[in-house]
């Protein structure tokens, strides 16, 4: 008997194994890491020799003789144990109507069994005979032990050994190397230069962490199983594929990869695809001869352009492969850690493509064979597996999908789409394969008249209307003639200083007439001007000067001291300079001005605008705003903001009057408006942020809009719908309100919307359509601008953002465009809407958060006046979202604000910090200063800043969690809102924390929860939610695994949505487990007793298979199948999965339509432990309660009497819910107890639920049918032929299945009080001694032995009672030595059944007592079906 | 009879898979670092078996230079038909 040897060798895991181990920890119950194949052997096989070949080979393969244990620090180790005696399952299935199908069914069941790495062997074998000369050798191995290549090495050796055994030849040496050599090689690699080279390659290749496109928006943890669709590519297509590959000198796999990338691009529109490529990872390695797990995954990124052909892509893939393959030894897991792409929903690569060239031709004693893959491991998203079939004439393509992300139909569509693309593309490899991303183009139309240089226009006004007022400021004014004259004079002074075309002059002046004069003078000199803020700190000014490198600073004496080391021209100094005639003004491509904007790196960048662009903008905007020479325009913006360009040049080019505001005007909104009234301003050009204040003040009557104002232009940030609404209500459509949008790079304004348009619906704030001369192009949601008003570029050396100016190939002629980085949406009215900044997009827990979206919701709170939400990047790289709000009294609390947000936004978009402030920081132009906000150290961060006075934040549970993380990560001051994985946590560390938290909190903490709730606050909430208010603290329960107790808590949110109404006749009944022994009888009884449609969730690949399983379940037990097809609806399901694997739509539909639920399904197994049963048995109950809660429908749970404590503990089993007790030792009992416990809580919440506990359910007396899967019958069937029977218990409850079905249905449909428990034990228990006597009397003499003795003496014949044997083996494996005095006590005390008896009174339903005659009928059945040999001594 | 494999042919085969000119192929190069993968090596092995040199994927994959490949191929060439070109 294999037992872990405490003194066995212990080894660290290989990196690849660690990855698998980690994955398994995330879901211990998942069988997904079982990989398997089966070899179909075309010829006779000697089962004994085969078993011996397996035994021998397993003994040779180190990787199979292992268990995995965890040390005190949570680190995994591989332990050497001897597993060679593990016997294969050998069965002859040829009597089955469909042996192959039966074999596949067996494999599916075996695959579905999770492996406990600490206890179970990592492998399993079966030899299934499916035809006279056809055997299937099934070969399952946990992925932690072997990868696909390792599996093939083992398979080859088995074939070799078997052949030698049959032929009597020497077995020879396996040739396998040692695992230690592989470990050594890995250590050497990690210490090598090559490792560093490889790391550099990958971290650089993925430095920008490309977005990973999947075929679905969603992401999920790896599922427990997968969907698969397989198709063969016919030889013609394969030949075309090879031909394309040959022509391009690439590998055919490159062509398949290219087609896959093209398919994903076509489906998603993503410009770049990152595929996951499993790589053998063995070239030049000792592991070529060591069965082991070393497989790696290579991320392959491929840019796909919509003009690419298959040829283009295949060549690109090939190049990328050649570049990456030399670095293929670098671990994928390591790269994810390097790139901080661990945890949450961070992804390094997308769908997988697995090319398997290992066609192995195995011969078993000369007989040919074919290999079939059953599972290649878990599927994260989608995986394309390509198998090179024999002779290279055909390719098998199996597309696997994660069922949490794709349904069958979606998978089918993707598989077909991919194959169609592949076939089409290899037939026409030069044709474009990439998809066309939707391109939206908005054209602002031609300019109303040709754009004229601004200086010409202004000179015209000076010449024609020289006396008209050009500029007014604080009581002073200049006419156009005067302005023109002084500007020309300045130009001459500049020319004397050798300032002319190509030069840049810094203008450092406050707003005023002089500033306007200076600007015009510089332009007249032929030079460009660069306005700098006279109020800026010296450091900022010198940084800008260094960047712009002006030839001269134009300023006044007041500021001169700051520019001592630069050439300066003082505007207010005596005009002593020699004067030169000014040269001709600049050509269209000469720069007119340079204005700095903040760059993405934080370094300011100077945007160079040419004269042509300025002229284009002025022509377009003047037309759009309808500016006239009568207008008086307020000059509001400081000169270093480009809004000043709009104000100054639009006004002067129109011949209107520019009225420069004085500083005191902006002290308050009423004051500004009073001044505007006094100054007869007709056009107000305001920063949107300032206008927000103005709109508020006007709407409340605090200020009055002057009657002369006919046009208001706003811009600079997104206008708030709420303020626009106020404005429209209070001001009306008579004043034109233009909402403008435009980056500095497109000359002030690119698009304009008329918000006064009454056609706009409330709340809608478009940014409109492009100005004449401009086009807006929307690509993948992002706005590109094209047209004559684009900037020349950035001043100075190469800038990171230079690439933003690039041709737009989607437009004819590929014109130059500017990529704004702004996300927009085109409305049905043809106007654009601003969505947000592409780079403001803040990613938290894998969610994309647009601060603007959060702000909009904040502002819907009645007591919030202003709000700004910023993503904050802390010094240690932590990211968090912070809301800054200005509230009106009484201010809401932070919790209230978050609650308000939570009502509309997903959790990730709710800022972790809410800070109240009197005012938001604003930039000089009145915009919210987001930079200041994102670098601010707010109150919420005081803990992090290390202030000793600050108490640790968060609840005590949160503190425990953060404390644990601080310990593991070696970090300090982790806040409850920090995402562990953002802090650099790795999966292994998450596992350690989960373990330690489990110990610390004395409860189960699953690793997956840490991934699902990656902050302490979220995790604490989750843990608290699970604990609920249950009266029994889990820690107090004796001996019960913590998982059981945790699972036995009903979620707080499962509550009745509606009062329980009067029961009417059910029209639709949901019945789970309808294919089982009891379930099929329940189905038959429900069909008889009601007229309802019975919905049966069944494990099946599709509806047809589900229906077929139901039909066979009924007919196979001689139960009538209803003539009316409407009566039974079989739906494919998996009760262990979320929403029972029904999918959201069906789950919701059933919740809305079912009138009653019978939950009978359970995985009945006495050998499995709880972790592998909880999904199907316990969690399914939780899901069904959720389903029942929608309409408060009754739920009846079929449970088991085995949840009760044994006789030794209680003399009587009550018809009541049971507290936890030490008798709950087997997983099955635990899972059913936990289910009952959930119902108990549901009953307390008013759910109409009942529990039906069953004893041993035996066949109906009239048929004598025996459930062959029943444990007791399994014991009898293995013991009787050997003449020995074990002492199992003293007595037990037997109830025939037909009685059970009638009783359960009857009792459930009579509207019992909520929470009624029924013990279906209406007759005395049957004594085991009596049973064995009757068996003997039937003609089977049998010795009665203690269980241990019986087990020892039972022959180990391979084809009998596999489950029974396995059950007893599992006892031995678990260390519970089967000794005479430690037999499990399976007996119960007296079972009360008053509820049952009372409920069935007068119903005519009664339970027959099990007697000799009945037992004989069962034994007759066994003889008839061949389950037992005919008795020899019995007299007939 | 298939054409026997010559060093020139060997170089040409490698060059095709490495996207190089035959004279650029560095025989001291490690096949792993040259950017080959198991599928490409499988394909090469099949090609050379067709040319009469009985080599398996595994034998090629475990060698760490093209020179070692050629040595193996030379040993496995049937008869004395091959001459180092």
- CATH homologous superfamily assignment of the largest domain in chain A: NAD(P)-binding Rossmann-like Domain
The outline of chain A comes out as elongated
Name the CATH architecture of the largest domain in chain A: 3-Layer(aba) Sandwich
Q: How many domains comprise the coordinates of chain B? A: 1
The biggest sheet of chain A, with number of strands, parallel, antiparallel or mixed sense and barrel status, is: 7 strands, parallel
Overall average residue pLDDT of chain B = 86
CATH superfamily of chain B: ACP-like
The proportion of strand residues of chain A reads: 15-25%
**What is the name of the CATH architecture of chain B?**
Orthogonal Bundle
Output the helix-strand order of chain B.
Answer: HHHH
- Separate helix tally of chain B: 4
Shape of chain B: globular
> What is the CA-based Rg of chain A, rounded?
40 Å
> Uncertain runs of chain B with pLDDT below 50, 5 residues or more?
80-85
The biggest sheet of chain B, with number of strands, parallel, antiparallel or mixed sense and barrel status, is: none
CATH topology value of chain B = Non-ribosomal Peptide Synthetase Peptidyl Carrier Protein, Chain A
Task: Please identify the top-level CATH class of the largest domain in chain A.
Answer: Alpha Beta
Compute the number of structural domains of chain A.
6
Q: At the first level of CATH, what is the class of chain B?
A: Mainly Alpha
Pfam family, one (chain B): PP-binding
Protein name (chain B): Carrier domain-containing protein
InterPro entries (chain B): ACP-like_sf, PP-bd_ACP
Cofactor (chain A): pantetheine 4'-phosphate
């Amino acid at each position: 008997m294999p037992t872990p040897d405490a003194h066995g060798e212990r080894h660290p895991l290989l990196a690849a194994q660690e990855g698998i181990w980690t994955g398994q920890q995330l879901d211990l119950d998942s069988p997904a890491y079982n990989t398997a194949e089966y070899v179909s052997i075309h010829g006779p096989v000697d089962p004994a020799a085969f078993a011996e070949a397996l035994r021998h080979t397993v003994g040779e393969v180190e990787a199979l003789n292992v268990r995995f244990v965890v040390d005190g620090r949570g680190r995994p180790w591989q332990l050497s144990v001897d597993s060679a005696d593990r016997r294969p399952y050998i069965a002859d299935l040829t009597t089955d109507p469909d042996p192959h199908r039966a074999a596949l069914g067996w494999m599916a069941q075996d695959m579905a069994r999770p492996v406990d790495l600490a206890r179970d062997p990592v492998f399993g074998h079966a030899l299934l005979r499916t035809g006279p000369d056809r055997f299937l050798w099934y070969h399952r191995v946990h992925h932690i032990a072997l990868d696909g290549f390792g599996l093939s090495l083992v398979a080859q050796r088995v074939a070799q050994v078997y052949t030698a055994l049959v032929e009597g030849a020497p077995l020879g040496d396996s040739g396998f190397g040692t695992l230690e050599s592989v470990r050594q090689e890995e250590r050497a690699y990690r210490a090598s230069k090559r490792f560093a080279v490889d790391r550099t390659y990958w971290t650089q290749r993925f430095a920008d962490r490309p977005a990973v496109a999947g075929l679905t928006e969603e992401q999920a943890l790896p599922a427990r199983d997968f969907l698969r669709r397989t198709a063969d590519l016919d030889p013609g297509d394969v030949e075309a594929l090879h031909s394309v590959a040959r022509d391009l000198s690439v590998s055919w796999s490159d062509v398949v990869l290219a087609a896959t990338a093209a398919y994903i691009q076509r489906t998603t529109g993503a410009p770049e695809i990152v595929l996951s490529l499993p790589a053998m990872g063995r070239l030049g390695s000792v592991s070529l001869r060591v069965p082991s797990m070393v497989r790696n995954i290579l991320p392959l990124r491929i840019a796909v352009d919509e003009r690419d052909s298959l040829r283009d892509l295949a060549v690109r893939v090939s190049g990328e492969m050649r570049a990456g393959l030399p670095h293929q030894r670098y671990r994928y897991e390591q790269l994810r850690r390097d790139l901080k792409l661990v945890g949450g929903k961070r992804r390094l690569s997308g769908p997988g493509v697995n090319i398997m060239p290992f066609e192995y031709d195995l011969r078993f004693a000369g007989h040919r064979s074919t290999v079939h893959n059953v599972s290649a491991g878990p599927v994260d998203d989608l995986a394309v597996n390509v198998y090179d079939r024999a002779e290279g004439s055909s390719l098998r393509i199996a597309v696997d999908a994660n069922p949490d992300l794709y349904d069958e139909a979606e998978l089918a569509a993707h598989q077909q789409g991919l194959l169609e693309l592949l076939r089409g593309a290899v037939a026409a490899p030069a044709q474009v394969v990439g998809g066309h991303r939707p391109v939206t183009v908005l054209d602002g139309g031609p300019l109303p008249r040709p754009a004229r240089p601004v200086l010409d226009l202004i000179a015209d006004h000076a010449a024609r209307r020289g006396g008209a007022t050009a500029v007014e400021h604080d009581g002073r004014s200049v006419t156009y003639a005067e302005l023109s004259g002084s500007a020309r004079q300045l130009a001459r002074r500049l020319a004397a200083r050798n300032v002319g075309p190509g030069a840049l002059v810094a203008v450092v002046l406050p707003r005023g007439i002089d500033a306007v004069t200076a600007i015009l003078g510089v332009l007249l000199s032929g030079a460009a001007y660069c306005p700098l803020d006279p109020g800026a700190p010296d450091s900022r000014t010198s940084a800008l000067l260094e960047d712009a490198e002006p030839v001269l600073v134009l300023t006044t004496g007041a500021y001169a001291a700051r520019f001592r080391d630069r050439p300066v021209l003082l505007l207010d100094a005596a005009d002593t300079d020699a004067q030169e005639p000014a040269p001709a003004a600049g050509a269209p491509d000469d720069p007119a001005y340079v204005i700095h904007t903040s760059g993405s790196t934080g370094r300011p960048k100077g945007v160079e605008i040419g004269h042509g662009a300025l002229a284009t903008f002025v022509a377009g905007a003047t037309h759009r705003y309808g500016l006239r020479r009568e207008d008086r325009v307020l000059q509001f913006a400081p000169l270093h903001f480009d809004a000043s360009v709009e104000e100054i040049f639009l006004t002067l080019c129109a011949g209107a009057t520019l009225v420069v505001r004085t500083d005191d005007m902006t002290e308050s909104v009423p004051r500004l408006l009073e001044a505007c009234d006094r100054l007869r301003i007709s056009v107000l050009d305001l920063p949107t942020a300032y206008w927000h204040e103005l709109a508020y003040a006007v709407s409340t009557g605090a200020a009055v809009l002057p009657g002369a104002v006919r046009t208001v232009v706003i811009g600079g940030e997104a206008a708030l719908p709420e303020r626009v609404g106020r404005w429209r209500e209070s001001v009306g459509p008579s004043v034109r309100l233009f909402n403008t949008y435009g980056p500095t790079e497109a000359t002030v304004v690119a698009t304009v919307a008329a918000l006064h348009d009454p056609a706009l619906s409330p709340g809608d704030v478009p940014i409109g359509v492009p100005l004449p001369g401009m086009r807006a192009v929307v690509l993948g949601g992002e706005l590109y601008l094209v047209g004559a008003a684009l900037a020349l570029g950035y001043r100075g050396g190469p800038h990171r953002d230079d690439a933003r100016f690039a041709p737009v190939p989607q437009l004819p002629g590929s014109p130059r465009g500017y990529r704004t980085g702004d996300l927009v949406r085109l409305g049905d009215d043809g106007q654009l809407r601003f969505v947000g900044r592409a780079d403001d997009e803040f990613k938290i827990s894998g969610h994309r958060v647009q601060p603007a979206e959060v702000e909009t919701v904040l502002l819907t709170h009645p007591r919030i006046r202003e709000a700004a939400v910023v993503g904050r990047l802390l010094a240690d790289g932590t990211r968090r979202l912070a809301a800054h709000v200005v509230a009106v009294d009484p201010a809401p609390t932070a919790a209230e604000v978050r609650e308000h947000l939570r009502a509309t936004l997903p959790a990730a978009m709710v800022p972790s910090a809410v800070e109240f402030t009197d005012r938001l920081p604003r930039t000089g132009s009145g915009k919210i200063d987001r930079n200041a906000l994102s670098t601010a150290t707010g109150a919420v961060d005081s803990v992090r800043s290390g202030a000793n006075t600050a108490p640790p934040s968060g609840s005590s549970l949160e503190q425990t969690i953060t404390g644990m993380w601080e310990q593991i990560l070696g970090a300090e001051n982790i806040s409850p809102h920090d995402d562990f994985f953002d802090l650099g946590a790795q999966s292994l560390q998450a596992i350690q924390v989960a373990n330690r938290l489990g110990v610390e909190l004395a409860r189960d903490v699953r690793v997956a929860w840490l991934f699902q709730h990656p902050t302490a606050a979220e995790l604490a909430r989750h843990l608290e939610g699970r604990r609920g208010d249950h009266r029994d603290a889990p820690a107090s329960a004796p001996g019960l695994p913590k998982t059981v107790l945790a699972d036995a808590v009903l979620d707080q949110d499962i509550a009745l949505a509606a009062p329980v109404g009067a029961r009417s006749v059910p029209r639709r009944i949901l019945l789970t487990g309808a294919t089982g022994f009891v379930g099929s009888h329940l189905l038959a009884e429900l069909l008889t007793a009601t007229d309802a449609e019975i919905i049966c969730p069944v494990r099946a690949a599709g509806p047809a298979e589900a229906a077929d399983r139901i039909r066979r379940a009924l007919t196979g037990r001689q139960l009538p199948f209803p003539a009316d097809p409407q009566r039974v609806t079989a739906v494919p399901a998996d009760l262990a999965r979320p929403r029972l694997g029904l999918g959201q739509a069906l789950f919701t539909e059933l919740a809305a339509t079912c009138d009653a639920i019978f939950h009978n399904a359970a995985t009945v197994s006495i050998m499995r432990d709880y972790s592998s049963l909880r999904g199907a048995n316990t969690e399914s109950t939780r899901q069904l309660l959720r389903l029942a809660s929608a309409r408060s429908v009754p739920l009846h749970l079929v449970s088991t009497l085995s949840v009760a404590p044994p006789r030794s503990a209680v003399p009587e089993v009550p018809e009541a819910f049971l507290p936890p007790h030490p008798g709950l030792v087997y997983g099955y009992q635990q899972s059913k107890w936990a289910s009952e416990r959930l119902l108990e809580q549901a009953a307390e919440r008013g759910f109409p639920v009942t529990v039906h506990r069953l004893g041993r359910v035996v066949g109906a007396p009239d048929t004598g049918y025996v459930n062959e899967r029943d444990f007791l019958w399994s014991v009898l069937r293995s013991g009787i032929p050997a003449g020995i029977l074990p002492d199992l218990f003293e007595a037990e409850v037997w109830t025939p299945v037909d009685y059970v079905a009638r009783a359960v249905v009857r009792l459930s449909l009579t509207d019992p009080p909520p929470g009624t428990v029924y013990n279906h034990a209406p007759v005395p228990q049957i004594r085991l001694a009596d049973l064995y006597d009757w068996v003997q009397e039937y003609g089977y003499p049998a010795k009665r032995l203690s269980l241990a003795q019986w087990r020892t003496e039972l022959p180990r014949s391979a084809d009998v009672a596999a489950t029974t044997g396995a059950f007893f083996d599992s006892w031995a494996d678990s260390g519970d030595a089967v000794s005479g005095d430690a037999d499990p006590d399976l007996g119960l005390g007296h079972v009360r059944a008053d509820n049952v008896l009372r409920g069935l009174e007068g119903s005519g339903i009664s339970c027959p007592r099990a007697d000799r005659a009945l037992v004989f009928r069962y034994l007759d059945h066994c003889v008839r079906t061949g389950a037992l040999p005919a008795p020899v001594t019995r007299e007939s | 009879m298939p054409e026997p494999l010559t060093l020139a042919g060997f170089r040409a085969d490698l060059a095709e898979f490495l996207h190089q000119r035959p004279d650029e192929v560095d025989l001291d190069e490690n096949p792993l670092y040259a950017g080959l993968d198991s599928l490409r090596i499988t394909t090469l092995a099949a090609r050379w078996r067709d040319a009469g040199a009985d080599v398996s994927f595994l034998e090629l994959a475990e060698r760490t230079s093209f020179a070692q490949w050629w040595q193996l191929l030379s040993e496995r060439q049937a008869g004395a038909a091959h001459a180092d070109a």
